[in-house]
């Protein structure tokens, strides 16, 4: 049984997904200056390289329509895309698709089935990110990896939670994770600002959290 809040969030993301059928190869995360898709891909490249080298399943959480913005195309045959919006997933090229609300607690995936979990610009929609990472720990195989990236503070058409990768890193440390790193993706000259016409309020930098579950 789907709760009222999940239904409302689903409706919101179905409307947003209408815009995602537009090809975004020329896409700039922020049009004026700070960061291009190429910069994001560059920051992710050591981790996407490891994804390509492994043969296991990759789970993209809050995948939206176009995970190939960040993930290599040759991962698609073993990519599982999970999103609250069925419409967003309808244009997603992943081999497997799951409609689920990540705020609802348990992810509908068995223990240890995933080799890499990725999350791009989705942490902000989850109040209890500690619990989500505990779920990620459960579904990852021993030695599995997490790659997650978001703005530390942003508003996007709705109230958003903080993304604090330093705190999340300590949650994973307690679970025995290794190779934990937080890196800044936006340049130090990044300037917070409001883009009222887009309903965006950008107040924080983009940070990347990566780590490895124990073997
Ligand atoms: C800003 S978009 C990012 C999409 C994609 N990862 C990207 O970076 O292009 C946020 C995505 O998270 C999904 N999402 C938001 N809240 C969610 C929830 N509670 N459960 C699952 N997916 C959710 C939305 O449908 C949307 O596809």
Describe the 3D structure.
It contains 5 helices and 10 strands. The protein has a 7-stranded mixed beta sheet with strand order 3-2-1-4-5-10-7, with helices on both faces. A 3-stranded antiparallel beta sheet has the order 6-9-8, with no helix packed on it. With 215 residues, the protein is α/β, with parallel strands linked by helices. It has helices at 4-17, 37-53, 86-90, 129-139, 165-174, and strands at residues 58-61, 79-83, 96-99, 114-120, 140-151, 154-156, 178-184, 193-195, 200-202, 206-212. The protein is globular and about 40 Å long. It has a single domain, classed as Vaccinia Virus protein VP39 (Rossmann fold), CATH 3.40.50. Mean pLDDT is 86; it is low at 22-33.
Q: Name the average pLDDT.
A: 86
The CATH homologous superfamily: Vaccinia Virus protein VP39
Radius of gyration, rounded? 16 Å
Overall 3D form: globular
Total domain modules:
1
Beta-strand share of residues? 25-35%
Largest sheet data: 7 strands, mixed
Helix percentage: 25-40%
CATH topology (level 3) name: Rossmann fold
Structural class: alpha/beta
Which distinct ligands sit in these coordinates?
S-adenosylmethionine
Strand order of the largest sheet: 3-2-1-4-5-10-7
**Topology, number of strands:** 10
- Structure annotation, total helices: 5
CATH class: Alpha Beta
* End-to-end separation: 36 Å
Written as H for each helix and E for each strand, in order along the chain, the element string is HHEEHEEHEEHEEEE
Poorly predicted tracts of residues: 22-33
CATH architecture: 3-Layer(aba) Sandwich
């Amino acid at each position: 049984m789907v709760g009222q809040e999940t239904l409302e969030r689903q409706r919101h993301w179905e409307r947003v997904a209408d815009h995602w059928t537009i090809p975004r190869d020329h896409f700039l995360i922020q049009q004026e200056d700070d960061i291009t898709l190429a910069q994001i891909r560059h920051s992710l490249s050591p981790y996407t390289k490891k994804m390509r080298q492994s043969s296991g399943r990759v789970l993209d959480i809050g995948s939206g329509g176009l995970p190939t913005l960040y993930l290599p195309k040759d991962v698609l045959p073993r990519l599982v895309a999970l999103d609250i919006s069925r419409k967003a997933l309808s244009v997603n090229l992943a081999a497997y698709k799951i409609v689920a609300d990540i705020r609802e607690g348990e992810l509908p995936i068995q223990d240890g089935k995933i080799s890499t979990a990725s999350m791009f610009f989705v942490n902000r929609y989850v109040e209890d990110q500690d619990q989500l990472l505990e779920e990620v720990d459960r579904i990852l195989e021993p030695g599995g990896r997490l790659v997650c990236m978001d703005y530390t503070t942003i508003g996007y058409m709705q109230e958003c939670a903080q993304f604090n990768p330093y705190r999340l890193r300590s949650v994973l440390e307690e679970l025995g994770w290794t190779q934990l790193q937080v890196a800044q993706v936006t340049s130090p000259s990044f300037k917070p600002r409001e883009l009222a016409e887009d309903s965006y309020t950008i107040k924080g930098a983009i940070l990347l959290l990566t780590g490895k579950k124990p073997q």
